[in-house]
Amino acid sequence: MDWVPTTAHWGAYQAASDGNGGVRVRPRADDPAPSPLLGNVPEIARHSTRVQRPAVRRGWLSGGPGPSSRRGKDEFVEVDWDTAFTLVAAQLDRVRHESGNEAIYGGSYGWGSAGRFHHAQSQLHRFLNTIGGYTASRNNYSFGTSQVLLPHVVGSSAAVLGYADSWATVREHTDLIVAFGGLPTKNLSISPGGVTRHTSAAAAADPGMAVASISPLADDVPAGGRWYSIEPGTDVAMQLALAHTLLTEDLHDADFLERCCTGFDVFADYLLGASDGVPKTPEWAAGICGVEASEIRELARRMAAGRTLVTVTWSLQRTRGGEQPVWAGIALAAMLGQIGLPGGGFGHGYGSMADVGDVGPVLWLPTLPQGSNPVRAFIPVARVADMLLNPGAEFDYDGQRLTYPDIRLVHWAGGNPFHHHQDLNRLRRAFARPETVVVHETHWTATARHADVVLPATTSLEREDLGAGRRDTHLTAMHRVLDPVGEARDDFSILAGLAERLGVRQRFTQGRSARGWVEHLYDRWREQLLTQGHDVPDFDTFWAAGELRLPEVPEDPPLKRFRRDPERERLHTPSGRIELFSAEVDSFGYDDCPGHPAWLPQERRGPLHLIANQPPTRLHGQGDVGALSRESKVAGREPITLHPDDAAARGITEGAVVRVFNERGACLAGARLSNRVRPGVVVLPTGAWFDPQPDPERPGQDLCVHGNPNALTEDVGASRLSQGCAGQRSHVDVELFPGPLPEVQVHAPPPLHPA
Ligand SMILES: Nc1nc2c(c(=O)[nH]1)N[C@H]1C(S)=C(S)[C@@H](COP(=O)(O)OP(=O)(O)OC[C@H]3O[C@@H](n4cnc5c(=O)[nH]c(N)nc54)[C@H](O)[C@@H]3O)O[C@H]1N2
Ligand SMILES: Nc1nc2c(c(=O)[nH]1)N[C@H]1C(S)=C(S)[C@@H](COP(=O)(O)OP(=O)(O)OC[C@H]3O[C@@H](n4cnc5c(=O)[nH]c(N)nc54)[C@H](O)[C@@H]3O)O[C@H]1N2
Ligand SMILES: [Mo]
Question: Of these four, 195, 199, 634, 647, which has the most CB atoms within 10 Å of its CB?
Fold first, then answer.
């Protein structure tokens, strides 16, 4: 058996054919914390839900393109590639000529698979650019709120997100980590593109210093950390009270605030209550966030006594008003005066992703050129359902008034909006609006089931590529391990086939095969590194070795430079400094994002807080049919964790199937009881494949029988500033489900008919 190197978003590993068409996997010998998600790989590679052949929705095939509420409910007819190419190319051509390229939505958000060349979204963007462009999306679901806020506060989002101190630096210099959102190690096997060795996961599991972990869940607390159990959505109140204590006890660094910040006077007036009559005292905060005033005061004093890293997980900004905990965290770090010092200041995403705190160089990696998009229209990524439902409507975004384009054709490759988007019942109505929906998928996900044309894509085990993630240490030669399933093709060949029908094959492929492109991207990258004086082997040597250690590049992070010389190394903010009050944000006049960090109380609409966080057993929806994910299910449903008191009040026992519901929707889930969640809080992670079926008890309504929390979340932007994803939390109630229990159908392929 030949073990070959490969990588995935859950990290590099080794794979071998099992001799029967399947795959065996094992971690790298030098990985200090291999990902448990490896356990899903053998099953997902060859699962019955793999898409085998191109398939077309019956109603679209017989009735032609047009809006249809049958999407997601119709049958599929399998066709050959020739027919599929003809059908899709004809619609791309018709739509761009009748309505312009703006009528094609190609944002195509989603993680797809690791691999620098076969990155589905990049492939699609390059293809659509060769035929005149598309309506694009901006920012991401992960930290889209921060991507818009941070430029106003520190001049760029990279200043914070791109240059986190390594875990080694934190261990050496930091006395106390104050972690809003905790340091959940379950998240740290993941980084986009993969990480070669899981050093962050190993470090976060045992940081070797004091950690104050502020979260509604004990599982977010690392070994030896102290759990501050907080009411969800109230971190800003606690942060303001910590700041209030620093100010009133004269523990703040007035010199740093004077030298490196602007607007502290406005923020201080707000803390003291001079501007709104409410002093943000620990007693005030305790009544909101549930952490005792004495504990807040004592924590503030400890923070001022040594080197302190204030860190905020990305989850805290993935919600209504999500700008505020990030901005307040920066204000708190600024008051401590340690921004730009090793192991001090502000961190964002320790506990969210493997690459935050990882050791690899910030380096340009081999990248597929996408060409340029002449279409100006775009949306902030999480406004997709709004766009499809409201063509021509206006909306706010970062000080601009923008208009939703009128989309006729949706083309998606490498993403699962019926996993990632909020209020999936509303998304179904939105997906009924376009004339044609084309999806490239490896598996029969809910998104594939809502398409008109499904084109079967290979997985990375079935092709060759180069793999590395942000701040990774190695470039992996991703060898092919398996033959493609059925008639599956890689996204590049699918798009080359469409390009051929549209007369632009040569422009799209530049005459190269997939392997030719992999070598070409490597050679271009190597040439650039050689001119910078790095020693990089030729392609054949690299491919045979299976990996390449990335060269060390010296770095001088923007905030460290700035701290040394704030006059010469000005930040790209209007003042050139850290803005604790932003006159620009203030001038936009948004009630949901004022000019300084503020406590914005949220209306509570339901007796229980729902936390829809990242799943410990898979990557989003990827791997839901794998062994690790399936074994975690309760009665075949996604587990929901409740506090025993909340369960008892509802007659719910361990292992019972429950109905989780609110005014937007409902799903089933399997009850797990634990006092590691705060009373009043339930946790239902994302990623159980959406399986809407008619609700036996509520005629006319759908019930996701499997447990996808996005049946319940609200489809709103974080604020008018960022329009970021707000899916992390919602309000729900839970009741016993009396049965009879509907079967989960989404883990089997839909009925497929011959043409
Ligand atoms: N309620 C709630 N919702 C959330 C979040 C939350 O906290 N709460 N988190 C959000 C976040 S941070 C994110 S990043 C999103 C993630 O949302 P997505 O990135 O959309 O989720 P994935 O399941 O990774 O979807 C990727 C899809 O690509 C397919 N795929 C894999 N490889 C290939 C390939 O080579 N070619 C093609 N064509 N397809 C391929 C996979 O089968 C999979 O269906 O979810 C968001 N949704
Ligand atoms: N295993 C696994 N790991 C992943 C992913 C995955 O799908 N699976 N996805 C990856 C991706 S794409 C991303 S963007 C990152 C996301 O990284 P994050 O967004 O940071 O991760 P989450 O797990 O959604 O949330 C982290 C914790 O925040 C806590 N939290 C929620 N609301 C509140 C609150 O109001 N206050 C406080 N103090 N805490 C709160 C929850 O208890 C939760 O466990 O994760 C990455 N890592
Ligand atoms: Mo994400």
Answer: 195
Judgement on whether residues 322 and 352 belong to the same structural domain of the protein: yes
Is 109 annotated in the active site? yes
pTM of the model: 0.98
* Ligand 1 near 686 CB (within 6 A): yes
Cβ 230 under 6 angstroms from ligand 2: yes
Q: Ligand 1 atom 45: the closest Cα is on which residue?
A: 420
Query: With a 6 A CB cut-off, is 47 part of the ligand 1 pocket?
Result: no
Q: What is the CATH number of the domain that holds 452?
A: 3.40.50.740
- Tally the domains of the chain: 4
**614 CA → ligand 3 middle, Å:** 9
181 CB within 6 A, ligand 2: yes
Question: Residue of the nearest CA to atom 47 in ligand 2?
Answer: 187
Determine the structural domain holding residue 626 and report its residue range: 608-736
Asked whether residue 712 is assigned to any structural domain, the reply reads: yes
Is residue 598, in this structure, part of any structural domain at all? Answer: no
pLDDT beyond 70 at 398? yes
Is residue 435 domain-shared with residue 571, that is, in the same domain?
no
Q: What is the mean pLDDT of residues 293-318?
A: 98
Ligand nearest to the CA of 412: 1
Closest CA to 404 of 396, 417, 415, 395: 395
User: Which chain residues have CB less than 5 Å from ligand 3, an ion?
Assistant: 142
Q: Cis omega (within 30 of 0) on the bond before 740?
A: yes
- H helix intervals, 225-351: 235-248, 254-260, 264-272, 282-289, 293-305, 323-336
Pocket of ligand 2 contains residue 412 by CB under 6 Å: no
Pocket probe mutation, ligand 2, options 198, 352, 600, 710, max atoms within 8 Å of Cβ: 352
Residue nearest to atom 16 of ligand 2 (CA): 352
**High-pLDDT (> 70) share of the chain, %:** 100
| Residue 362 clears pLDDT 80, i.e. is over it | no
- Kindly state whether residues 241 and 308 are assigned to the same domain: yes
Q: Is 294 helix (H, G, I), strand (E, B) or coil?
A: helix
Q: Which of 10, 111, 134, 167 is catalytic?
A: 111
* Shared domain check, 176 and 128: no
Pair (342, 236) in one structural domain: yes
Q: What is the pLDDT of residues 5-60, one digit of tens each?
A: 999 999 999 999 999 999 999 999 999 999 999 999 999 999 999 999 999 999 99
DSSP string, 400-462: EEEE-----EEEEES--HHHHSS-HHHHHHHHTSSSEEEEEESB--HHHHT-SEEEEB--GGG
Q: Are residues 221 and 345 in the same domain?
A: yes
Domain shared by 438 and 351, yes or no: no
Percent of the chain whose predicted confidence (pLDDT) is above 90? 95
